[in-house]
Amino acid sequence: MQERAAIVMGRSFTQGSVSINLEKAGADRYTKASYPLRYGHYSEIVTHDAIYHFHPGGEIWFARGRGALWPDQQEWLKRSAGNDWIYYSTGGYTGVFEAIGEYYLPNLQYPSNALIGGTPFAAPHVRRLINGWYEQLVSLRHRLRNAPRDVDAFLEKVLANGPAVLAEKARRLFQIGDGRVTVLPPDGRHVDYDIIPLNISTGCLYKCRFCKVKNKKLFRQREKSEIDYQLGELQELYGENLSNYNSIFLGEHDALCCRSELLLYSVQAAYEQLGFSRSSMRGANVFLFGSVDSFLACTESLLEDLNRLPVNVFINLGLESVDQKTLDVIGKPVDASRVEEAFRRMLDVNDRFQNIEVSANFLMDESLPSHHYHSFLHLCRDSISRNRVKGAIYLSPLRFGAPSRELLFSFNRLKLQSRLPTYLYIIQRL
Known about the structure:
Layout: E1 7-9, E2 12-15, E3 18-25, E4 41-46, E5 50-54, E6 60-65, E7 76-79, E8 85-89, H1 96-100, E9 105-108, H2 124-143, H3 149-159, H4 163-176, E10 196-199, E11 201-202, E12 220-221, H5 224-238, E13 247-251, H6 260-273, E14 285-290, H7 292-297, H8 300-308, E15 312-320, H9 324-330, H10 336-352, E16 356-364, H11 371-382, E17 393-397, H12 405-417, E18 422-424
Parallel strand pairs: 10-13, 13-14, 14-15, 15-16, 16-17, 17-18
Antiparallel strand pairs: 1-2, 2-3, 3-4, 4-5, 5-6, 6-7, 7-8, 8-9, 11-12
Helix pairs in contact: 4-5, 5-6
């Protein structure tokens, strides 16, 4: 069948069933939305079979199949900077927002602790899109006729970022930070995990026996020269795509334990060198982990200095349990009294500092001592006089790959009784 003549309108190009739209502007602020929403600047290719969205640098970012064979027209794939494909499902919109605080559920290709979700990667059309998007676009470029110069240049940039190149860019990203980011703070959901990693330390303090996502390295603060090196490499690697980012993750597992000067220097240097003030996304954010001891040792002057920075600071604490028997069982070398003290300070900091939000993680599992849950409710319900909207509690299933209706029921019961916003923590890497 003969295709219709090509139509060129501004920054758009149409030929037959193919439409290419360059430099589209998405939302400039992250929003909790129950419909697909794109952020920042991107370009789009629409074909008979699929829709593709690309970063300014030409890397594929989002993709969705078209037609009745795609699982759901409101669901899509996203490729992370670490070159993982994530499938965002609605879950029928039933209970997803209550469970994770977002309308869309991230389904991951690697083992995680998720209690909810399906098997979208087993769907033939999902697999076909992941495995065949590049070949489809190579074929598309050969078929297009009369494409204007800017459209052809865009397609050349896209095809220069094939699967092997994207895998190499991910490898470079991991190399810059001396290893892959194995776990991101759960508060990263507020920016859809569009976070640039900057490791200002390595390892963690405790080496808890239960933990599956942290390494065995001894805790070490990095030097300013190492921070500067990473920022220079990150600036080069992300290139044009920096315009779509306004958030950093200060790694690895307890950046709050770093000396105040290094922490503040890292935030300020990243804000300036990565150009967050020029981002297409409003505001700027910093995400980091803290421990019981590093948070209790955090000085008032550091909190005041962080609060004055032109960023929102999200600190996530691994508290795990306020029951001493449970702490002993999971091999966390802290006293329950210190955990409770850190929790009290979390409430206080959230009340007093506008630009800082501290959240906390607690464990869930059928095998944990029964008093673990009693002590959790005493802490998050009985000891708090009013409901609060700031400072989320994230409940993390202890086991990976073990969805459980009983555990999900327990989560819902705890969530209903907690006086703090309470969600499931789906462990996600970069």
